[in-house]
Amino acid sequence: MATRIIRAACPHDCPDTCALLVTVEDGRAVKVAGDPDHPGTQGVLCTKVSRYTERTYHPDRLLTPMKRVGRKGEGKFAPIGWDEALDLIATRLGQIAARDAQAILPYSYAGTMGLVQGESMAARFFHKLGASLLDRTICASAGATALRYTYGASVGMDVEHVTEAKLIVIWGGNPIASNLHFWTRVQEAKRRGATLVAIDPYRSLSAEKCHRHIAPMPGTDGALALALIHVLIRDDLLDHDYIARHTVGFEALRERAQAFTPARAAQICGIAADDIEWLAGLYGRLAVREHLPVAIRLNYGMQRAHGGGQAVRAVACLPSLVGAWRQPAGGLQLSTSGFFPVDGQALQRPDLLPGWPALPRTVNMSTIGDALLDTGNGAGRPKIEALVVYNSNPVAVAPESAKVAAGFAREDLFTVVLEHFRTDTADYADVLLPATTQLEHVDVHKAYGHTYFLANNAAVAPLGEALPNTEIFRRLAQRMGFADACFTDSDEDIAAQAILRDDPRAQGISWETLKARGWQKLNLPAAPFADGGFPTASGKCEFYSEAMRRDGLDPLPAYVPPYEAPATAPELASRYPLAMISPPARNFLNSTFVNVDSLRATEGEPHLDIHPEDAAARGIEAGTMVRAFNDRGSLLARARVTDRARRGLVVGLSIWWKKLAADGKNANELTSQRLTDLGRAPVFYDCLVEVERADGVVSAPAAEMAAAP
Ligand SMILES: Nc1nc2c(c(=O)[nH]1)N[C@H]1C(S)=C(S)[C@@H](COP(=O)(O)OP(=O)(O)OC[C@H]3O[C@@H](n4cnc5c(=O)[nH]c(N)nc54)[C@H](O)[C@@H]3O)O[C@H]1N2
Ligand SMILES: Nc1nc2c(c(=O)[nH]1)N[C@H]1C(S)=C(S)[C@@H](COP(=O)(O)OP(=O)(O)OC[C@H]3O[C@@H](n4cnc5c(=O)[nH]c(N)nc54)[C@H](O)[C@@H]3O)O[C@H]1N2
Ligand code: SF4
Ligand SMILES: [Mo]
Q: Which residues line ligand 3 (CB under 6 A)?
């Protein structure tokens, strides 16, 4: 038996971007393990990806191109050949482009985070075509925009050092579920005496293991952060030297924070003022008086409300006020993606756009429901006539799902989906194309939770007739007659182009070295901002942002309340008094893995966590089927009566495939298409609902998928 070990990388949208070792026996991948030598991965994978072969060799894998034969959404398809499929697509796209290429829209996100199978050949193809651009806002753009204005880019501390920290604040994140390798380090820090604090409306798996859990109402973090700033300034827990040399706008920030007394913020957030005094006191004292490292792990949970961007701005000021950056184990990490010297121009070739540097119209992916239902007004806003979806499952993951599904159901919309499985979105495809998984193609990866580049070597040959995304767009480009040399680049050519080799951070790193070694760390100082040097225009951390003022925004960190809360929408709150959040489930990755039986079995069925008092008031007991609803829709789930959810909050861990739920719906039936204050991002956790008993409904997940396809 021929056994080989292949160096690969986890493709998923997870900050850990693990280094994988894939065992291949006689051409079949039999085991996917973590690389023990990679300092982040440490030989351990999450449950999901340690089951990767179960997903890759799943009996439901799409293995041939298919053409729709049933109604849209019904999921009935007949196999066709690649030539027929690609001819059909090229002909339709060609006809539409001849009138107005902007009626064509790509829709993609981070099904794979690979730089090659993500936006490389696909982007080149749509740029050359002159299709509408997609504003990829669905996850990180509120915080990324806030960090860009504050630090200059998505940069922060290296959590490899966090084991040395004496205080770790986990703010809006649940690392046991979604950032496992960071949690391992936090445990080590705890053993060495660190105090752990969670800021989260929900007592998550991680929050329950912290020394203190502060549970503000969703979307109120901006007020909390401004109150922490207020106390640090009031009590002079400040690093005056760091502030003077490496920040802009301290006086203006002081004035802004003046109004956010702990009492006022406590009232806004629904917490005790003492929590704020205690946290600010500890954070400031450890950093300023005792010169000990204090770290903040800021995450996405707190960005998914109206004020998500400004809340990140406010939190991002904290480490600069106390000089936490001076130490490798201090500072803040939201994302490290801005450290990577990646050649986006080479990968995506925006210069291929017909009017470059003028841009075609841009469509926000977070409001795809409205965009598809917009009949257009001709010039500048043509109706979307064709949609090409890859690396994403919008019918399950995009907000206000009923509108998304109605848009996808339009008879006059031509939809192409590149997928591994017949997802909720795939069911609406006119042409469904089988894509390869990470074990079957080549890629190169950056990360957003560490600072290593990784290579993904192909472990096995493509299953069935599946093709990499790149090859599908390469063949389409050929059919469209696109003659530019970049359309013949191989995947390895593209991987090599991805790394900006002149950049000192990438010194010694190339595709050749990477694919042999598997991973290489960027050259960065251990404490990147110990002596300032932020990549802003001023080179400083900008409490006051002149760029924001120029862009017509509030130049100072602010508290922007949720759209849907008693204070801002009293009438709505009287009808829908409960705030609903739908953060990631541990055993799914967004909607990926929901169809892997062993993982779905662990999650059970869609649940809704509700506080005992809120449950009692509604006659709800543990295990009751309940209906959560608002003006946008409704959702069935099994109640878990638990004080993990604070009073006034319900929690439905997500993101279920709609067709695998009893009622064919998931949390996005209830979420809105409103956008955050910065970054045009969705507000998944800014969502009021009411919950009632759904008597008579006893069914477990629908059996439909058992027979699929
Ligand atoms: N297992 C697993 N891992 C994942 C994912 C997954 O689906 N499953 N998804 C991946 C992706 S795409 C992303 S973006 C990241 C997300 O990463 P995170 O943002 O870290 O997501 P979670 O770990 O669920 O943490 C979100 C936490 O924020 C809390 N929260 C909700 N609203 C608020 C609020 O207003 N304020 C505060 N302070 N907290 C709030 C939630 O209760 C939840 O516990 O995880 C990635 N990793
Ligand atoms: N209610 C609610 N909704 C949310 C969130 C939430 O917390 N609550 N989280 C939001 C967040 S943070 C995010 S990032 C989005 C995530 O939304 P998406 O990026 O759409 O993520 P997934 O649901 O994992 O879907 C990715 C799809 O890509 C496919 N795929 C993977 N690799 C490849 C490949 O190489 N080629 C092709 N063609 N396909 C591939 C997978 O099979 C999968 O079906 O969801 C958002 N939606
Ligand atoms: S999903 Fe995250 S934790 Fe799991 S293997 Fe991938 S990178 Fe590692
Ligand atoms: Mo995300």
A: 10, 12, 14, 16-18, 45-46, 48-49, 180, 589
